[in-house]
Design a protein that fits this description.
316 residues; mainly alpha; MetI-like fold; 78% helix
């Protein structure tokens, strides 16, 4: 287990290096002068030249990349030009809303998906199965931001049950915190629940045909115990993998939903930093998101051995 974990941690290094090269290249090869964008079109050429020298934009791109990468290795992601703060501090200050939104959305997705997926597998071929799969297809087809707009129009504007947009931290109270997160979390979680539902149904169908399930039924074990204790437990390894992938998708894919609901999270931070051409903030934020993505996948892999003891991570 320890050897496997160390090998996976070492494998993260080349992945993050590739991410760093790609994001640095995309940002610096984008047309437009960031110094001009920061100062405005009316700024004098002398002031633009001074800012370019201050930010090191006059240096060759390879030299700029080496300087930035050296700082990243030391734990210094640079400073945001507009916010005048270290990139890491800005990222952490915006991580709370995104993390709360992703966790709440994932809870909603799991609460919807696993019962429906199990029910669809048990009722295979019936009207119930077809109805659940139709809902799952709808969830995959409707973009989360569009569902969010419909929820705002119906729940907030017409019914007046929940706030239209905004965010309240957990310090303002749990009820107030969840009140502002419910609509964006449902908009995000509904699409993910559709994916988990389809995978739960597929995995359960494979497990329900196994010989140990037939043996349990022949011994007179009740349907509930067969389904939830034997079948679901054995099918959960595959489901867990999908849950881990959807959670990382929630963290990285909440950009538009956060913008629609005015949630001050990572998504809104990225949008604002792109508009301002804040290079250091964009590079550092994307790199940290990529690091979080691979670490979450590592945690999911390690949980396989907890969910299913037959999985041996130290076996080649």
């Amino acid at each position: 287990m320890i050897k496997y974990t160390l090998n996976r941690l070492l494998a993260i290094i080349p992945v993050l290096l590739v991410v760093a090269i790609v994001i640095f290249s995309i940002i610096h090869l984008t047309p437009g002068d960031p110094a001009t964008v920061m100062l405005g079109s009316e700024a004098s050429p002398e002031r633009v030249h001074e800012l370019r020298e201050e930010l090191g934009l006059n240096l060759p791109l390879p030299q700029q990349f080496v300087q930035w990468l050296t700082g990243v290795i030391r734990g210094d992601l640079g400073n945001s030009v507009f916010l005048q703060k270290p990139v890491l501090d800005v990222f952490i200050s915006h991580l709370g809303p995104t993390f709360s939104l992703a966790i709440f959305a994932q809870i909603i997705a799991i609460a919807i998906a696993i019962p429906l997926g199990v029910l669809a597998a048990v009722k295979r071929g019936t009207f119930v199965d077809q109805a659940i799969m139709s809902i799952a297809l709808l969830g995959i087809s409707v973009p989360s931001f569009l569902l969010g707009l419909f929820l705002i129009l119906f729940v907030s504007v017409h019914l007046g049950l929940l706030p239209v947009a905004g965010y309240q931290p957990l310090s303002a109270g749990l009820i107030e915190h969840l009140k502002y997160l419910l609509l964006p979390a449902f908009a995000l979680g509904f699409m993910q629940s559709a994916i988990i539902t389809r995978m739960t149904r597929s995995s359960m169908l494979d497990t329900l045909t196994q010989n140990f399930i037939k043996t349990a039924r022949s011994k007179g074990v009740s349907q509930a115990i067969v389904v939830y204790k034997h079948a679901l437990r054995n099918a959960f390894v595959t489901i867990l993998e999908v849950i881990g992938q959807t959670f990382t998708t929630l963290l990285a894919g909440a950009v538009v939903v956060e913008f629609v609901f005015n949630v001050p999270g990572i998504g809104q931070l990225i949008v604002n930093s792109i508009e301002r051409r804040d290079f250091a903030l964009i590079q550092g934020t994307v790199l940290l998101i990529a690091a979080g993505y691979v670490l979450i996948n590592l945690v999911v892999d390690l949980l396989y051995g907890v969910v299913d003891p037959r999985v041996r991570l130290n076996r080649k």
